[in-house]
Amino acid sequence: MIDIITLLPDNIANQIAAGEVIQRPSSAVKELLENAVDAGADRIQLFITDSGKTSIQVIDNGKGMSETDARMCFERHATSKIKNIDDLFHIRTMGFRGEALASIAAVAQVELKTRRPQDELGTFLEIENSGVRKHEPCACAPGTNICMKNLFFNVPARRNFLKSNASEMRHIVDEFIHVALAFPGIFFSLTSNGQQVFHLEAASPKQRFLQLLGNQYNTKLVPVKEVTDYLDIDGFVGKPEAAKKTRGDQYFFVNSRFIRSAYLNHAVTSAFDALLPKDSFPVYALYIDLDPSQVDINVHPTKQEIKFEDEKIIYAFVQAAVKHALAQFSVSPSLDFSLNAGIMQTEAVSQPFTEEKRETVTASELYKRFSQKNQAHLIEPGNKGELKHWRDFYGSGADSSQLSVDSPETAIGIPGFENRQPPTVICQLLNTYIIASFNNGFLVIHQQHAHERILFERYTNAIQGKQSTTQQTLFPVTLELSPADSALLQELLPELQLLGYRIEPFGNGSFIIQGVPADVLQGNEKHSVELLLEQFKHFSSELKFNKREKLIHCMARQQAVKAGQPLTEKEMKTVTEELFQCQTPSVTPNGNPVFVEFTDEQLLKMFGR
Ligand SMILES: Nc1ncnc2c1ncn2[C@@H]1O[C@H](COP(=O)(O)OP(=O)(O)OP(=O)(O)O)[C@@H](O)[C@H]1O
Ligand SMILES: [Mg+2]
After folding, report:
1. pTM of the model
2. How many contiguous H segments (helices) and E segments (strands) does the chain have?
3. Whose CA is nearest to atom 7 of ligand 1?
4. Ligand 1, atom 11: nearest CA belongs to which residue?
5. Where residue 24 falls among pLDDT bands split at 50, 70, 90?
6. Which among 339, 300, 338, 296 has a CA at the least distance from the CA of 316?
7. Are the beta carbons of 548 and 555 closer than 8 angstroms?
8. Among 313, 331, 555, residue whose Cα is nearest residue 456
9. CB of 282 within 8 A of CB of 272?
10. Cβ burial, residue 384 (10 Å; 0-12/13-18/19+)
11. pLDDT confidence of residue 466
12. What is the mean pLDDT of residues 218-227?
């Protein structure tokens, strides 16, 4: 029998392995920026063309590479950052796997110019398909200048998979923000298609946060600082009024590495306790520093997920540090910053790993403060208004005739609708469901889902050129946005115009809102645009929708009446009638059911008849 196993050629093996590290342009941005940081640069410039699809270039003034290293750096498992397995537990650099450049070289064309300060001449390399195409000495500034072109040029399937420029750019800006926030002492700039989006002089962590996310946070941040023998926590949390309606600016750094951790996020959120209005998310940038042996950063190729030796104790520290900061800065007058009961009982806190560790931890000031119970507190969150908003919308006689009636009887399979009879509203149940009867049974309609569907179709019509109503704002409202948000808003302006927004750019991240769609409550103009941007950002990873659809989804979701709100009879009637004038009344734009039907026959069957 013939043997059938062969070793894959290096370039193919590299291409396959690259999939884990380089998923999209923003992954390459992250890797190149981190390499520049690791090289000790204090000036790092990022240039992007076509959201990274055409080119990504990073120029740093770091230590550069020798000629041999310049060739070596594109080999898989080639790194200067670790030498043996023990080093893995003492890592202070961003990289250590020795695979980022090998991955990039496998899926893009790369040009590298690099020179060590002590060398007279630098090295120029051109790489394609993991192979060196050109290698010559060159004159260049000390540091490294690396340019990656035509990402996935040799993996068309992956190139096709890339999303719209707006979406890829958003990912790039996110990665840039992560690195720039982690290293406020370094100068960073980001230039996209020749336009400078960020120019960040070296700054304090707070200044860097404001440079990146906007000055509106200036008076809304509370410093968090705790130094213990086990770990240090630094950074800030936004005061409750800075909280956002969607998970927005939430950043955790562990030993200067941005990480994602739902668990630690929960620690922060729970520290706010009753301080936050319902459905709001706190803003924060928290920097945790601890002995690298207490974390395993090698659990995921992107290193954004890490494993703590003892996760529970980190949770406890984070939660308590945030509570303490909020209390200290009188965000709440008297705050209970004891550890919560569940955490208190965990072994990690009562007996952290070894006796020795336990002693150091429990001797720390922070720990002592946590173990003394202080007074409890109760602060009522104030969050009313959405209902008023919605009521005004219908109360103002919004014209339901705008919606075209597209043969509802074919769109849904409800028996009674063959005769075009709209269901008759009976009552509201649990402030969430509208019960309506039709001639052959009854429907349980989810009010929020129904309204999302109605608005979705209304906005779709509007954006397709059918009319949408704008209400002029009484006084023009000014909106100040961070550079990233203002770039996003600029992109969305044409669509927003079709939806009824009248927004004019005013330079330097300022915009003037002259008008908003008729269903946005007066006084809510600014909030509605900010919310829309936030939602859009977090919705932007959805593959199946284009930009317009996403925007419409966000608008519909934002404006829809919420579950849990009592409705008048008139409102229930309007929702029900408009729902069944929709083209697809039975599902929400996201595919969730809008109503459940119970027919006469089903009911009889249930009763055994
Ligand atoms: N901008 C740079 N300046 C100086 N040296 C660099 C630069 N970029 C890369 N190198 C060198 O090339 C090596 C390989 O880089 P690469 O990003 O592939 O691996 P790494 O950073 O060691 O690990 P990881 O794959 O985890 O990022 C680095 O270890 C470093 O020595
Ligand atoms: Mg690297």
Report:
1. 0.64
2. 21, 22
3. 35
4. 73
5. very high
6. 339
7. no
8. 555
9. yes
10. exposed
11. 62
12. 92
The residue count of the chain comes to: 609
Q: Which has the closest alpha carbon to 456: 565, 567, 584, 593?
A: 584
> Distance from the CA of 78 to the center of ligand 2, in angstroms?
10
Q: Which tokens is 436 given?
A: 């309506």
Which residues 6+ apart lie within 8 Å of 316 measured at CB? 267, 339, 343, 346, 348, 349, 370
**Least confident window among 73-77, 152-156, 514-518, 603-607:** 514-518
CA distances from residue 333 to 282, 316, 365 in whole angstroms, order as listed: 19, 22, 22
Query: 96 vs 391, which has greater pLDDT?
Result: 96
Q: H-helix or E-strand containing 135?
A: strand 131-138
Q: What's the whole-number mean pLDDT along residues 69-75?
A: 96
- For residues 98 and 17, is the Cβ–Cβ distance under 8 A? no
What are the residues facing 299 on neighbouring strands? none
**Degrees, nearest 5: CA angle 390-391-396:** 105
CB 123 within 8 A of CB 70: yes
Per-residue tokens: 339: 């550890």
Q: Are 423 and 409 in contact (CB under 8 A)?
A: no
- Rounded to an integer, what distance in angstroms lies between the CA atom of residue 43 and that of residue 36? 9
Ligand 1 pocket, residue 98 CB under 6 Å: yes
81 lines ligand 1 (CB under 6 A): yes
28 lines ligand 1 (CB under 6 A): no
pLDDT of amino acid 85: 83
pLDDT tens by residue, 275-314: 887 778 899 999 999 999 888 887 777 788 888 888 888 9
Ligand 1 closest atom vs CA 146: 1
**What's the Rg (C-alpha) of the chain?**
28
Partners of 234 in the β-ladder: 225, 287
C-beta of residue 320 within 8 angstroms of C-beta of residue 314? no
Report residue 486 as tokens. 């203002």
